[in-house]
Amino acid sequence: MAAELLRAAMRRDALLAVLGCNTLAAVLYAGAVAALWPAFGLGMPILAVFMAAAVSSIAGFAFSPIAAVMLVHLVDDPVRMVSMMLIASITIQTYSVRHLWRDLDWRGGLPFLLGGLATLPFGLLLLMQISGRGHALLLGTVLVVYGGWMLWRPPAAPRGAVPGWVEVLVGAASGVCGGLAGFPGGPVVVWCGLRGVGRVAARGLTQPFILLMQIAALLLLQVLDPGPEARPGTDPALLLVMAPALFGTLCGLALYERLSDRQFARMVNAMLLLAGAAMLM
Questions:
Q1: pLDDT, tens digit (0-9, with 9 covering 90-100), for 162-206
Q2: How high is the pLDDT of residue 270?
């Protein structure tokens, strides 16, 4: 018993050290960027990216809607904002894929990827047309409805196999979401919840899918909307969000490893509900 208590205390101390060190690093980094390059206006956005990365890395998705709740008040240009979220999210997913390599299901995500890549350009074109408020209301409504239903519905049970075309359609919905908000994981995570997929299998499926979709979205954004010189989406200064994204990811992964499947599911759905509610305000 004493040995178990000692190990638990050591694990708790290690967790607190990870959280404390990375939070301090993010705050110092944001302060340095704000002081050295004030024209970039990235001091507060960097802290928003850190907080969103820490929370979303627990679940392995939802970085973009969580970050958007804060960034919509800090970044005027919607294309710049989505580009910033894509760069940060690619950093998060790359590290998470490396960290969770043995649990990844690349083959299982292929039907979703096929549908997602087909509709991704349409999502990006919608992003360039829809107003910022309309975009927030649309995404917020979807997140509130789904997050609330998943929190209070009976637990799902695993189900049998489904035709591959159904997964392609789910991927197609993800492509639209990925273009509109840099959030391709939403419909796939909904699908995993409906199918009763556990946290390890869900992350193994969604993590590589999100990474590939967001790389494609960032590249397509430059092709579809090259804009004038100094295009916001290609602003090299946006690469400064990679470091706080990594600091937040380290915090989130440290917390993720201490969650059960039930705790994981409730955390994911609560995150979606809160993010959606904030977007509607």
A1: 777 889 999 999 998 888 777 788 788 778 877 777 777 887 888
A2: 75
Burial of residue 152, with CB atoms counted within 10 A of its CB: 0-12 exposed, 13-18 middle, 19 or more buried: exposed
Q: Give the separation between CA 51 and CA 35, rounded to whole angstroms.
A: 20
Rounded Cα distance, 90 and 210, in Å: 8
Q: From the centroid of its chain, how far is CA 106?
A: 18
pTM of the model: 0.78
Contact between 230 and 40 under an 8 Å Cβ cutoff? The reply is no
DSSP run (H or E) holding 233: none
Helices 132-152 & 63-71 angle (0-180, nearest 10): 130
Residue type present at position 46: I
**DSSP string for residues in 45-107:** HHHHHHHHHHHHHHHT--HHHHHHHHHTTT-S-HHHHHHHHHHHHHHHHHHHHHHTGGG--TT
